[in-house]
Amino acid sequence: MNEFSILTKIDNYLKDFLGGFHDPVFKVGKIILIIVFSILIAKAGKIIIRKFFEKQKNLKFKMSDKKLDTMSTLIASVFKYVVYIWAILMILSDVLNLKSVLAAAGVGGVAIGLGAQSLIKDTISGFFILLEDQFAVGDLITVDTMTGTVENMELRVTRLKSFDGDTYIIPNGEIKRVTNHTRDNKMVIVDIPVAYSSSMEKVYEIAHGVCEEVKAEFAVFTEPPSVMGITELGKQSINLRIIARTYPNEQWAVERRIRWKIKEAFEKTGLEFYDRTVVTKED
């Protein structure tokens, strides 16, 4: 009883102090409290959800880490939107006393009025992306002309981080074509120009040696490096090709290393990549 009497005295004091501004100030205060409370709930829920999925990574029988990260970000996003929609409805119905308007318009009408058509489209697309396992957090993908690593997959948008640090924020409903560079093993193809004047026996010996050295340096091969052979006879050089297969996203480092070692070996042995002189016939 004492608590209620104290609250009543405070309310009466505020009414006397604020006069006609009491109701608007009181409503603004409630709106601020609801917003702050909903933000805190959303942040706390995000932390709890992520901790829960982090624990799942340590279980013996579990999904892949990428799928767990994807589900974590998606569920956290769903929770955030649910909390924010609840806050908006609470402000409209309890604070602004728009219950009759909400009842007349209906939930569907209010959702459309709030621009939820695109939200529903993006949400459904996001669930289909997850259901069909098109990509997951950590995958390197290309959407239209944008290439990057999936940093976050939310209820409405997918966030990509490009190689140069740019962040692409793409609504899920606008993702029509996706190229996933992370799935399946990748082909390593290194074309080496060799001058016609070079000894092909020596070139093959060097190429085989480089393949063995690179094979020993990397533990990412599903098929070790090998010399495929001559693939083209150009105007100034012969094209020798080295091939291999690696785990996803490992092919570039292997290609760079092969080129580096071939360059060093050619310099040491005096072999040329291109003929320095070109002989042409006159008609």
From TrEMBL:
Annotated family: Belongs to the MscS (TC 1.A.23) family.
Subcellular location: Cell membrane
Molecular function terms from GO: mechanosensitive monoatomic ion channel activity
Membrane topology: Multi-pass membrane protein
Domain Mechanosensitive ion channel MscS C-terminal: start-end pairs: 189-273
GO CC, alphabetical: plasma membrane
TM stretches of this protein: 31-49, 70-92, 98-120
Gene3D superfamilies to which the protein is assigned, alphabetical: 1.10.287.1260, 2.30.30.60, 3.30.70.100
InterPro entries: LSM_dom_sf, MS_channel_C, MscS_beta-dom_sf, MscS_channel_2nd, MscS_channel_C_sf, MscS_channel_TM-2, YbiO_bact
Protein name (database record): Small-conductance mechanosensitive channel
Domain of life: Bacteria
Key words, A-Z: Cell membrane, Membrane, Transmembrane, Transmembrane helix
Organism: Ruminiclostridium cellobioparum subsp. termitidis CT1112
PANTHER family referenced in this protein's UniProt entry, alphabetically: MODERATE CONDUCTANCE MECHANOSENSITIVE CHANNEL YBIO
Residue span, Mechanosensitive ion channel MscS domain: 119-183
A Pfam family: MS_channel_3rd
